[in-house]
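Step 1: inspect the first sequence and its tokens.
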Amino acid sequence: IEMRRIICTLLCLLFISGTYAQDQKKLASFAGKMNQILDAFDSVMTHSTQGIELVKSHYQFINKKIRSQEIQIVYGKSLPNSFIGGAGVHISADSTKIGLVVGDFLLDVYSTNPTLAMGMLMYEYQNMYDFYNNRKLYLISLSNMIEQTYFSVDALVVEAMFLKSYFGDSSSLSPLEKYIINDLNYNMNGAVFLLYNTDLNLLHSMSNLVHSNKNLEETLEEFKVMGNVLIENKKFEADKADWDKYCDLVSLRTYVYFSSQVVFDILKMKGKKNITPSTFKLRDYKDVYQIVNAIKPIIDRNSKYFKVGTEILDKYNKSFQIQKD
């Protein structure tokens, strides 16, 4: 009852502001569905004899803040109709408050795949937990794509731990959930590869350069060599399987996508303390810039192989029998 009152209050305030929804009827429907989902989620977390203490404590921490209305829950009309991005968080302009945003996908999938809906919530609960308990770095991650990725991976790990510990033996788990649970055995490398088009092992290697014992020039040279090795090793021969080409493409994409952040962090850590995002230009570091520009055409020529991952995700999405009111 307490949870229902809190949500309805928040939704009425939201309706006045008109930020995420257009009409009161939709908000009332949202309130009813969210009450049902949160009640079920709380029942699982409260009454289950299974579970991992870390997952349980992080849930309880955020649940208390939802009940006290410190965290508001709002309807995200424009969120993707997908398990990727179907829920999210919103941080206030002054970076002092965080809210939970829930879209139609999570609301609708609950009726046929309740464990998936709860898993999506656990993912966002972990994001909110990090906001409160590691706020400085979490706020940095909003403009630092490497840290942002690492927080996303942390949330995915907690979601997988939740699913495994509370529902691991359930026959009702979807193929996606089973995949995420199984990938705990592989440090979530496969899931991150597929869900975020990111080679996590490569990203770790790139990020580790920032904290290496080498000086600035040596580190930039090592990063350049890393890119050259990728160019030499990632070949798209005709007889190569599409899956392998997709994997090569993701690795190349990882190097290019994170290159500016890696170089900026290297500079900041190893001598150029006064550099800022507004003054930093990758093209000022010609050796690395040339490698990045050499990789981009390779990605462009073979971008069709991204469809391998997209088609897998589409199959996962289609496996959910969404029911609309």
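Step 2: inspect the second sequence and its tokens, then contrast the two.
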Amino acid sequence: MGSPPTFRSLCSLLLLTSIAGCAPNLEERTGQFIAAHNGGDIEAALTFFAEDARCGLMGEWSGNEGEAIRQLEEWKVAVNSRLYPGELSVIGDTVSFELSETSGFLKLVGVDTARYATARLVFQEGLIKQVEARLTDESSEAIAATLASMERWAAVHADELLTELVPEEAPVLAGANYDQWRSMLNRWSQFEEDALVETVSYDHFGFHHEKLLTSSLGDVAKRLFFRSPYNPRQITGEGLAVYPNFEELIHIADLSGQHSDFDVATPGRRWICLDKKGNVVTEDGKPVLVETFRARQQSRFEREYDGAFIESQTTTFYPCQDCAQQTGIPECRFVW
């Protein structure tokens, strides 16, 4: 499903009913709303919003304002949301502050505390007219990575429930369906990948030119091989593309001694690490590359032939016994 539109809509939920209400004394009104919200008093919390109030996060705005705000406040109560504002700054009719949030839903997606770098409330006649907020990069990346992994799992193992909860990639988060979300996320968190499968394809000369890695969640990564124009048997380098953006090729190894156009400046092969669910371990959106080593990772392979030539080869990899220790990456359960 790619990088989550789900995530952006979810973020709007995390804040939409989170902050409200100031009147004559905007600081006091903000505190009163947060007290009502944290106390689970939906009706009291809703009185702090103007009828046409709207919420914007990451540049996207909510629609159907009144109904959406009620639905989301009901969701917040169901997930036991708690808000922790930083120091308030009041300029005119606008209140600005940093914000942290905890909830049962956030814990399910592996985020103890969601942090917002800024939150801004614009008031009109003592009621919230507009809410603007932005997650910190750390919180947004953590939530996005978790939701992407969950969606990949659900597409294979809970497709009907995923379609019900995320129709057309727009999540339905309401108090009435929290139990369904909790059930799906609990099943996802308990899922463990027990094997990865590598399929090697060959050209008509019998030379392998591509390796594709898959898990039960779908395609994970692929490797491409670069060959000498003078000797097609000689591999001069390797490229790597990882799910979901296979179009972005990273040159990871130069075996010819000329590596000026390679992203990894030192020659030699590189591996990627994968976690127990078959997700590529990344940092700043890029796969983490590690030096090859003698890994204690069992595998078995099968070959298919077309006459005298190999047509394809399939290798199954099982969890590595020492990859986390060898790489210093705790979540590393496979190397490839």
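Step 3: confirm your contrast with the notes below.
The first strand starts at residue 49 and ends at 57. The first helix runs from residue 5 to 16.
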